[in-house]
């Protein structure tokens, strides 16, 4: 037989007070003129009886549901960006909110369905997230509710959370310059992506930081090796092309870790040791990066911190519009050394 739900009246009776008084205490009414003894008795009774407030009734009173939504393209099912979900869930839990998650796979029809479903449930706000950082066109229905962008920006003046890619570009270049490298190549720079923020913000921002670090020392890139994509096979092909040139760079900045994985293999195929013959540094901090030999120095995407900040902004009704840049820490491992003499 199912156990009867403990009611507010049960708590009031156990505390020896009126139902109204118990309600004032449990709803934290600041204007309630009750003694501290009365408050303690109500709270003790609620704990002893295992009272749980009716969330639906409370939401009607305060016009909030204590639920928020995270709508993404492919974040929820992507291992690499799962930190966004962990961070968002952590803050939602700490703030006593439920996080509802929907993934659209980039399908406009699935996106419309997800937005309708979340708004029908009267969520208090929406985190609108993207797997890779880019400029989004935000659906009108989200502009009519409280929305924070995660790993994305837009022209709509919404609060947005993005990784500090330009600072990371500066940091990886500075790490090489600090070891004395002057002939530095970039592997994976794709002009079409760099110029198209709707496709990717990362490429352009990373390149801007790299160029700035070099310019601060009166230097320019020695060479750029363009690749079709940013996968390991492209890194292998690009690094092979760099090594076949007459003047080999002393260090290579790969635009992401997958390119670096392929570059490692190409260096080994050519009989080059890392970092004795050539140094490599990258971006993202894929879990495999620390298992390479030597470990790959890379600027980490702060997905968990980004997820946390997005929910904090969503629940902060005083949060101003604009972009918050989350630092990308440099994970220093063994892939950078001094230039070979």
From TrEMBL:
<dbReference type="GO" id="GO:0003700">
    <property type="term" value="F:DNA-binding transcription factor activity"/>
</dbReference>
<dbReference type="Pfam" id="PF13377">
    <property type="entry name" value="Peripla_BP_3"/>
</dbReference>
<feature type="domain" description="HTH lacI-type">
    <location>
        <begin position="6"/>
        <end position="62"/>
    </location>
</feature>
<dbReference type="InterPro" id="IPR000843">
    <property type="entry name" value="HTH_LacI"/>
</dbReference>
<dbReference type="Pfam" id="PF00356">
    <property type="entry name" value="LacI"/>
</dbReference>
<dbReference type="InterPro" id="IPR010982">
    <property type="entry name" value="Lambda_DNA-bd_dom_sf"/>
</dbReference>
<protein>
    <submittedName>
        <fullName>LacI family DNA-binding transcriptional regulator</fullName>
    </submittedName>
</protein>
<dbReference type="GO" id="GO:0000976">
    <property type="term" value="F:transcription cis-regulatory region binding"/>
</dbReference>
<keyword id="KW-0238">DNA-binding</keyword>
<keyword id="KW-0678">Repressor</keyword>
<dbReference type="InterPro" id="IPR028082">
    <property type="entry name" value="Peripla_BP_I"/>
</dbReference>
<keyword id="KW-0805">Transcription regulation</keyword>
<keyword id="KW-0804">Transcription</keyword>
<dbReference type="InterPro" id="IPR046335">
    <property type="entry name" value="LacI/GalR-like_sensor"/>
</dbReference>
